[in-house]
Design goal:
CATH topology of the largest domain: Rossmann fold
Shape: elongated
CATH class of the largest domain: Alpha Beta
Helix content: 25-40%
CATH architecture of the largest domain: 3-Layer(aba) Sandwich
Number of helices: 11
CATH superfamily of the largest domain: Flavodoxin domain
Largest sheet: 6 strands, mixed
Order of helices and strands: EHEHEEHEHEHHEHEHEEEHEEEHEHE
Length: about 375
């Protein structure tokens, strides 16, 4: 499970950080990961009230290009957000105010509200007696719900704790909250998994562990050492999403004509010029075969030598797949973002091996990255 923490306190060894440290221990017990950001270390500007995020003609993400945009992207890919801030003079401190004011760009009136079952844990610390600011704190907590988070727990911690006095009970509670928010979801809780497993030719559809993703990435990196390096851009885009699914499909009884193939391979220069591509359209193939400026290195791969510049490096680039599955729209409708990619032959064989699937040519593997 992926969790991010935003600490608004300028004190890196203060009460907020101490509580977060204990929560992180609970998260790690479930093999979860917690990435911690300090507002003081980031470039986060105040909301400018420009309302570009809710422009009725063209709403967008917050147009202020600062570190809040980075946090937004991380929140989309994470399972939970921990927010910790001190109360100064009866209110959240200035750093916390600046961060939370930017939530304005993520409410339901914008296209940026978080989707999926994402949790929030909110920590407020202060020197007054515990409970003094509960009404104010719960009011602030509603802002987290406005951006699509489900508040799992609110810790209202007074009396200068945990650094003052006996706080073992509080720290154990923090560890327990860490355990609760990092329990890995069952595969069947994902609608996209249920859809895939309901399809006739899908033999397996499994959420990929971080270890498996690292192994597949390592296998793909070996292709950079080939005479013409191969970059699997589609796979990288899939792995950039919050989760990835290894999908094994049996095409044994399926006859697919060449023109139904999805082009995904291009030959590019290091400047991005396309100097070769897969072509399966019969009319286009026929036309290009009579073009003296086109050279075919295989029946369905055309190159354009006149676009090649001496001295420029060349790479094969594998793009994400579009229109690969008949039920692609159904899958897209179950998540907020989705990328379908095709692994290399070696990676395909490795996935089938660990899933105990026969190594047959017509049994193929796809990797689908998604963010709920």
């Amino acid at each position: 499970m992926k969790i991010i923490t935003v600490i608004a306190s300028p004190q890196k060894y203060g009460n907020c950080s101490t509580i977060v440290k204990e929560m992180t221990k609970g998260i790690q017990e479930n093999n979860g990961e917690n990435t911690i950001y300090y507002v003081d270390d980031m470039n986060i500007k105040p909301c400018q009230g420009c309302k570009a995020c809710r422009n009725p003609k063209k709403p967008s993400k917050c147009i202020i290009n600062d570190d809040f945009r980075k946090i937004m992207d991380e929140m989309e890919k994470s399972d939970a957000l921990i927010f910790a801030a001190p109360n100064y003079f009866g209110e959240i401190n200035a750093q916390g105010h600046i961060f939370m004011d930017r939530f304005y760009s993520m409410t339901k009136s914008t296209p940026n509200q978080l989707k999926g079952d994402k949790k929030a844990v909110i920590i407020f610390t202060y020197g007054a007696k515990t409970g003094t600011y509960d009404e104010y704190i719960h009011k602030r907590a509603r802002l987290f719900e406005s951006i699509g988070l489900k508040v799992h727990e609110i810790l209202s911690v007074g009396d200068g704790k945990p650094l003052s006095g006996n706080s073992e009970e509080l720290l154990e509670k923090a560890r327990q909250i860490g355990r609760e928010i990092s329990v890995k979801r069952n595969d069947e809780e994902y609608e996209i998994i249920r859809i895939l497993r309901s399809k006739d030719r899908v033999l397996r559809a499994e959420i990929m562990s971080d270890e498996l993703k690292k192994k597949i990435t390592k296998l793909e990196m070996k292709r950079l050492d080939e005479m013409v390096p191969v970059i699997n851009k589609g796979l990288k885009q899939a792995f950039d999403e919050k989760e990835a699914i290894a999908v094994v499909i049996d095409n044994t009884d399926v006859d697919v004509s060449i023109e139904e193939y999805t082009p995904s391979l291009t030959l590019q220069s290091n400047k991005g010029t396309i100097i070769g591509e897969e072509i399966y359209d019969p009319d286009e193939l026929e036309e290009l075969k009579h073009n003296p400026n086109v050279y075919f290195i295989s029946d369905y791969f055309a190159t354009y030598p006149n676009l090649s510049v001496p001295g420029e490096k060349q790479f094969f680039v594998v793009s994400k797949l579009e229109g690969e599955l008949d039920y692609e729209d159904e899958l897209k409708n179950s998540v907020s973002r989705m990328v379908i990619s095709s692994p290399s032959t070696e990676a395909d064989h490795y996935i089938k091996k660990i899933l105990n699937i026969p190594q047959k040519e017509k049994i193929t593997t796809l990797i689908i990255g998604f963010t709920e």
